[in-house]
Amino acid sequence: MEKSFSESYAAAGVDVTAGYESVERIKSHVKRTTIPGAIGGIGGFGGMFELAAGDYKNPVLVSGTDGVGTKIKLAYLMDKHDTVGIDCVAMCVNDVACSGAKPLFFLDYIACGKNFPEKIEQIVAGVAEGCVQAGCALVGGETAEHPGLMPEEEYDLAGFTVGIGEKDELVSGENLAAGNVLIGVASSGIHSNGFSLIRKVFNINEETIKVYYDELGKTLGEELITPTRIYVKPLLTLMKSVRVNAISHITGGGFYENVPRMLSDGFTAVIYKDKCFKKPIFDLIQKTGNISEHDMYNTFNMGTGLVIAVDADKADEAVRILTECGEQARVIGEIKAGEKGVELC
Asked: What ranges make up the beta strands (E) of the chain?
């Protein structure tokens, strides 16, 4: 008797019934992210979001997309899959918020060697948690099985977000001026950058991630898996009261690549390293890997996840607002006239 198509597809390594189960499992997580404007549920051919007429005079849509990088390897080793979704959301929505826009909705893409519904549920639960923290709706996504292309136990995760802002309120850097103060906002740790180097430095495997370090107060794996901090709500709160002239999200490329992205020509960002936030994990990485200070600041956030430029007379108010929002924030530098770039002193 001739096999049915679904049986043949299963024989090829794609389990459509697992896909159906995954969708059912994630529905409750997706529901947590519902906000005004989100229309319908998951399962359609397109995620929908309604923009209410009159909410904006001259609205601008701001989009962002990113993944988690090789941090996912740590999730495999620890068999912990409920935090990388937060990382994925954070990497996208933080970038959008740095433009002064409010993230509206998010979509995820999971590519896996085999669809294990329990694992997919954990991943999406993390994505949903990230969306809740950012105040945006999870309106859709895709889980694709890639038998023969990826090992069964592995997966990759990427995301996409769209935000909105009033055109004349977006953070473009045009108001940046010499004498502006730079405010640093603490990171939660490594975030999602530099993991290829970290894996080499510590020879990351199932044993090394279990090593307890007194200076960390936890195992290496527990420290490294800490999810990326989501800054959306504190930033939006700050922007309601204080004009923000420029923002840099310290991601891959560290300070040397990301800080110049917030600058207009003719300005130098001067950052005082002793004013920045310190986290023991970065000292441990530098010491263990015998890495130069320049390379550390060129790879990692070093404990500071955001750098925000404001007028000098607004610095105290900005720090107060961010602190009231639950962030660690303080003045770490200033803007001066000069060649576009960053000076770490």
From this structure: 38-39, 48-49, 59-67, 102-112, 137-145, 155-166, 181-186, 212-213, 218-219, 244-249, 267-271, 304-310, 329-337, 341-344
Spatial CB neighbours of 142, under 8 Å, sequence gap ≥ 6 = 107, 108, 109, 110
Contact assessment for residue 328 and residue 256, using Cβ atoms and an 8 Å cutoff: no
Q: Which residues contact 84 (CB under 8 A, 6 or more apart)?
A: 68, 71, 72, 75, 123, 126, 157, 227
Going from the C-alpha of 155 to that of each of 12, 15, 122, 148, the distances in angstroms are: 18, 16, 13, 13
Of the candidates 143, 144, 139, the one whose C-alpha atom is nearest the C-alpha of residue 161 is 139
**Residue whose pair of structure tokens reads 């006239």 in the numeric block:** 337
- Please, are residues 255 and 294 in contact by the beta-carbon 8 Å criterion? no
Do residues 277 and 305 make contact, with C-beta atoms less than 8 angstroms apart? no
pLDDT at 55: 82
Q: How far is CA 179 from CA 70, 246, 247, 267, 322, in A?
A: 39, 13, 16, 10, 21
Q: Answer with the residue of higher pLDDT: 54 or 234.
A: 234
Give yes or no for a contact between 130 and 230, defined as CB atoms under 8 angstroms apart: yes
Residue 302, both tokens: 């070093």
**Partners of residue 67 on adjacent β-strands:** 158
Q: State pLDDT tens for residues 158-209.
A: 999 999 999 999 999 999 999 999 999 999 999 999 999 999 999 999 999 9
CB atoms within 10 A of CB 237: 15
H-only helix segments in 242-313: 254-258, 280-289, 293-297
Span between the terminal Cα atoms of the chain, in Å: 76
pLDDT confidence band for 3 (50 / 70 / 90): very low
